[in-house]
Amino acid sequence: MKSLPLYIFIAVSITGFSQNPDLPTDFLSKEFHKQRRQQLRENMPPNSVAVFFANAVRNRANDVEYAYHQDPDFYYLTGYKEPDAVLLIFKDKQTSTTGTAYDEIIFVQPRNALAEMWTGRRLGDAGVREQLGFELSFNNKEFKKYNIDFSKFDEVLFHEFQNDVRNDPRDSSDLYDLVNQFKAKANFQEKTGLTLSVEPQRNNLNALKLGSIMDGLRGIKTPEELELIQRAVRISCQGQVEVMKAMKPGMSEREVQGIHEFIFKKYQAEDLGYGSIVGGGHNGCILHYIENYKPSITNKELVLMDLGAEYHGYTADITRTIPASGKFSPEQKQIYDIVLNAQQSAIDAIKPGVTFQQISKIARDIVNIGLKDLGIIQNESEGTRYYPHGLSHHLGLDVHDRGDYGELKENMVITVEPGIYIPDDSNCDKKWLGIAVRIEDDVLVTKDGHELLSGSAPRTTREIEAMMKLPSVLDNFILPSIEKKK
């Protein structure tokens, strides 16, 4: 490959840079991210380079953006949480024009006093070197000048683009421009549609292999990652506990959601791992119901609550289903116990070497038999009508995290979440209609078995009913009416 120009190694002094004293101190260390980059390098094919881009800024409406969330792969490898950046990791050492050897380089958005006054502090290239441990960190405007011949590599690894990045005409080095600059340097063209197609002579570009490599890395959690996941899980469990104690008939779905998310914030969780799901009654039959608009949950209804706090990038994913009245009806309890039996049986089978398919079959067979015994289905093959989703997925920086879905391995963190959902238009006895139950827990695969991480949130009907009898810290939290007086 061509050497780096001399100018790119000249350090630029930026005045006024200092570490933000208001941030928590328990983020992943720069050593963690450096070690992850080395692990990636060891898994890359010979004579290859991997290219990663920061996530795009997403527009909410007009001049308001959504809160920025970094691409999980980019964060995993760098710890950098800002937009408009590109990272290159080389399998082998490269040599600059000055004779300096290097195997990684990152380009980030520059310090900008005016922009930082409006949208917050930036690390800049000096901050990335100081705080994140990169030896080569440069202003993203330098990427266009970065002289690299991608044709010299046997493989260029990257994630396929989705063409959903906005162009800011005021910034010549935003993500839109960085992507296009990479495309020009790599010399490939795009076909009509979303799929990226490389020119025939540029067959060293690989948009698939990188995902497989990252799956292998991120699917196995390190001790540092497990500590953050476990904290996110404990926070989320406490949210479930506090709602169980506070739940009263007449509460809205939005109020229940608010209690959960207040608890998350109280314990310093920065974000949600996904849109909060609070489904009262038949709304629980909508698997990814996030409207949460029902103004009043009745005393005859169940409340399905699927929420996960995100702590320092790592998320929990926990579901509990509780009776608004504080006591399960006989029909609700029958459905609940089938789901709990299916879940516990699957959890009991978790250990290294067991496959995702095997634990899924355990749970599905129990659900199907239970539904048949209750007369809700006539044939066990009909069970997918009331249990239409999978049992398990990886958990980490994404709620549906990267990872291999073959055999379970030590230090994987997975969910176990069977469910039964009986919509109001189902062809069964009407006493079952509107019942929706999902129980979801987070499980660590250990050397010889497993550890239930989310056991502090009650799971059995007896435990839930007992918890719901306890007083709540919110019992006396009564706000005045804001209705307009007539």
What secondary-structure arrangement, pairings included, does this model have?
Layout: H1 30-43, E1 48-53, E2 59-61, E3 64-65, H2 72-78, E4 86-95, E5 101-108, H3 113-119, H4 124-132, E6 137-139, E7 155-158, H5 175-186, E8 189-190, E9 196-197, E10 205-206, H6 209-218, H7 223-246, H8 253-266, E11 271-272, E12 277-280, E13 302-307, E14 309-311, E15 314-315, E16 318-323, H9 330-348, H10 356-373, E17 413-416, E18 419-421, E19 436-438, E20 441-445, E21 450-452, H11 461-468
Helix pairs in contact: 1-2, 7-8, 7-11, 9-10
Task: Provide keyphrases for this structure.
Creatine Amidinohydrolase; Creatine Amidinohydrolase, Chain A, domain 1; 2 domains; disordered N terminus; six-stranded mixed β-sheet; 486 residues; alpha+beta
